[in-house]
Amino acid sequence: MNSVPSLNGFSIIQQEWFAENVPLSQIAKEFGTPTYVYSRKALTDAFNAYEKACFKPNGERRAQVHYAMKANSNLAILNVFARLGAGFDIVSAGELARVLAAGGEAKKIVFSGVGKSRSEMIAALKAGVKCFNLESIPELSRLNEVAASLGVIAPISLRVNPDVDPKTHPYISTGLKGNKFGIAYDEVINTYREAASMSNCKIVGIDCHIGSQITEISPYLDALDRVLELIKSLGDNGINIHHLDIGGGLGINYANDTPPAITDFANTLLNHIEAKGYGHLEVLFEPGRSLVGNAGLLLTTVEYIKPGETKNFCIVDAAMNDLMRPAMYEAYHSIVPVKQSNMPNMTCDVVGPICESGDWLGRDRELNVQAGDQLAILSAGAYGFTMSSNYNTRGRAAEVMVDGSTIHLIRERESIESLFANEKLLPA
Ligand SMILES: Cc1ncc(COP(=O)(O)O)c(C=O)c1O
Ligand SMILES: N[C@@H](CCCC[NH3+])C(=O)O
User: Domain Orn/DAP/Arg decarboxylase 2 N-terminal: where (predicted)?
Assistant: First the structure.
């Protein structure tokens, strides 16, 4: 099987794949492979699809996008979104430093994650982030203490675990009782009361995020209803919520997925919130994958075709260290030859050179390729480069962004020397 999603920013012209106006073969020639290729147009259009839903008919803003930068944190990509007015969702001091370096504004940053360290809290308080999304009483107490030591007030939301099934891969569900994320639904009111009693925390919002690659709207509506009920009870307890962060998680089409379109998805949630009488709340979205996933691909070259006893292998120069998702979640990424040909197809597994049987990128694909040909692994813009590693002492891939007819190198390929530059031999 080889299903191909329709993509914005990438197309086939005269039997050859292009990124905007640039043939992928030209990128391979100039920058080598493996290389991640992003389309600025695709990034911009995805962001604007959210923005379209973020305004009321009178022009007043009703929602703000906070890009979940864990999906792809290259500075150039962050900068494209920052220029478009995005806020950001971060999960570490590293992400904070990156987004500030890329021109993101601290006052548009929300800080998520279950395990914020003291030093991360200090960095975020000093920067002046918009909000900390907290997930437990110990974390709340620590933040209160750290804020007191700096003589500042920390703006906070509590992340609710609404216990709804997002109907996605179990490894990427986050809003079920058994997950480590969020505060159990029945504990939320008491935890807010505790937060209200803390001298250096100020309650500003409520937060929930139920999972990733979600292709249906109903789990969001279920989660929203549960969170809106909490907002009502909190109000009855004298605790007023100013913003509602509904997390990220909207899926993309990898091949045969049918997620709602971004604007429809965002409008449906925002209209639901208004219809329930909560239109006064500021709403935050934290999308990651739906902004970048289909705006990027991984370009690779075939090293060898190896006929096996039971199947053929197409051995390429990209590997699980470049794109973990197939090995980790058995995720499907469409794989296409950069130059289409009329040769007969063969069925093969597309695999990398790493010494693990789990090092595969696609299974049972129908491809007509030979050694030296290039392949594009599609829908690799999210959780591709950011989850890559140096396993087998492999330098990480180069990254380029195409903007019309221009190719920008946005990350150089890692040199081999840089991979062990921080290591030290024992004394003689
Ligand atoms: C708290 C939080 N917000 C946002 C996201 C972004 O999710 P996605 O890339 O599925 O939109 C994640 C990752 O799942 C997350 O953990
Ligand atoms: N890394 C996952 C998604 C996890 C989202 C982070 N909470 C993926 O590639 O699909």
Answer: 56-292
Question: Could you tell me the distance, in angstroms and rounded to a whole number, from the CA of residue 213 to the centre of ligand 1?
Answer: 9
| Residues 8-62: tens digit of each pLDDT | 999 999 999 999 999 999 999 999 999 999 999 999 999 999 999 999 999 999 9
**Which fold would CATH assign to domain 105-287?**
TIM Barrel (3.20.20)
- Residue 108 contacts residue 128 (beta carbons within 8 Å): no
Q: What is the DSSP string of 125-176?
A: HHHT-SEEEE-SHHHHHHHHHHHHHHT--EEEEEEEE------S-GGGB-SS
Closest atom, ligand 2, to C-alpha of 211: 7
Instruction: For residue 85, give the amino acid letter.
Output: G
Tell me how far apart the alpha carbons of residues 405 and 414 are, in angstroms, rounded to a whole number.
25
Cross-strand pairs, 17: 12
Distance CA 292, CA 294 (A): 6
Tell me, in angstroms, the distance from the centre of ligand 2 to residue 247's CA: 13
Q: What atom in ligand 2 is closest to the CA of residue 209?
A: 7
Please give the pLDDT value at position 405.
Answer: 98
Rounded distance from Cα 65 to ligand 2 centre (Å): 18
Using alpha carbons, list the distances in angstroms from residue 409 to 14, 302, 396, 397, 402. Answer: 26, 22, 14, 11, 9
pLDDT of residue 343: 81
Answering whether pTM is above 0.90, one says yes
Distance 328 CA to ligand 2 centre (A): 10
**Cis-peptide, bond into residue 337, ω within 30° of zero:** no
Neighbour tally for 423: CB within 10 Å: 6
User: What is the reported pLDDT for 308?
Assistant: 82
Nearest CA residue ID for atom 9, ligand 1: 288
Query: Is 329 annotated to bind ligand?
Result: yes
Q: Is the CB of 74 under 6 A from ligand 1?
A: no
pLDDT of res. 169: 66
State which residues of the chain have pLDDT below 70.
1-2, 168-179
Q: Which residues are catalytic?
A: 355
Ligand nearest to the CA of 383: 2
Asked whether 212 lines ligand 1 (CB < 6 A), one says yes
Cβ of 89 closer than 6 Å to ligand 1, yes or no, is yes
Sorted by where each begins, the domain ranges of the chain are: 10-39+293-419, 105-287
Pocket of ligand 2 from Cβ distances under 6 Å: 70, 172, 212-213, 325, 383, 387
Span 10-39+293-419: which CATH code?
2.40.37.10
Among all bound ligands, the one having the nearest atom to the CA of 172 is 2
